[in-house]
Specification:
The complex is a heterodimer.
Chain A (H helix, E strand, L loop, with lengths): L2 H23 L8 H19 L1 H7 L2 H20 L1 H8 L14 H28 L1
Helix pairs in contact in A: 1-2, 2-3, 2-6, 4-6
Chain B lengths: L1 H25 L4 H19 L4 H9 L1 H24 L7
The chains are: A mainly alpha, B mainly alpha.
């Protein structure tokens, strides 16, 4: 891609990552959550791939790493949902409502679910790009 | 035989259409159950988790397994695309 798109992506990429992580982490306070935040983070990497090509993106974040991230996030999510009632009983009395550390185990759910959505979408994107470039 | 099938299908369509209109005219109260369940969600969701975003507390607390299923759908989609992209070509190309 040409220099205009590269410079724009260089400026926009950290901001999009920041917005995505904000949406994920504040999922129990503001609208949004794991699905929308994970999609935003994955969209940042898609934009980076479109501007800089697959090799440079894979230098930042390898596909094997994304694969491991996705599988481990799924496993942790299953364990967390099975023991959700225990976490709720321990965490909710300690916390103050309307702050970042409220909502009991919701913040863990949002972060792990966001990682899972992000890595799942990114695995799909990497696979499509790699099979297309063959 | 085909004409009979056509007549039967048309008759069924007419019956379903008019029964739908009858239901709409008679205006049954579907909302009582909905009111009860949404009031329960709003009050108990706030009591149990004290999260400001009640939608997230419902999605991950009351419907945790449902959301786990949604994540599993995404996981399965990724595995399916991966298998479509690489699965058939591993032996031949790489």
């Amino acid at each position: 891609m040409n220099v205009i798109i590269r410079t724009g992506v260089k400026i926009l990429f950290p901001l999009i990552l920041l917005i995505g992580i904000y949406v994920i982490v504040h999922g129990h306070l503001t609208p949004g959550g794991s699905f929308s935040g994970g999609s935003i983070v994955a969209g940042a990497f898609v934009l980076y791939t479109l501007a800089y090509g697959l090799e440079k993106t894979e230098r930042e974040l390898k596909e094997s790493v994304v694969d491991i991230l996705k599988s481990s996030a799924g496993f942790i999510l299953i364990v967390l949902i099975l023991f959700e009632f225990l976490l709720r009983r321990f965490l909710v009395p300690l916390e103050v409502p309307f702050t970042l550390f409220s909502g009991g185990p919701l913040i863990f759910f949002n972060v792990i679910g966001g990682v899972m959505v992000f890595s799942g979408l990114l695995v799909i994107w990497y696979t499509i790009v790699k099979t297309d470039s063959d | 035989m085909k004409d009979r099938l056509k007549i039967a299908t048309g008759f069924a369509c007419i019956v379903i259409f008019f029964s739908y209109i009858l239901v709409c005219i008679s205006n049954p109260d579907f909302s009582s159950f909905e009111k009860k369940i949404s009031n329960y969600y709003l009050t108990e969701g706030w009591k149990s988790l004290k999260a400001a975003n009640v939608v997230t507390s419902i999605v991950w607390d009351f419907r945790g397994f449902d959301t786990l299923g949604e994540e599993t759908v995404l996981f399965t989609a990724a595995i399916g695309v991966f298998a479509l992209g690489f699965g058939g070509f591993v032996g031949r190309r790489r």
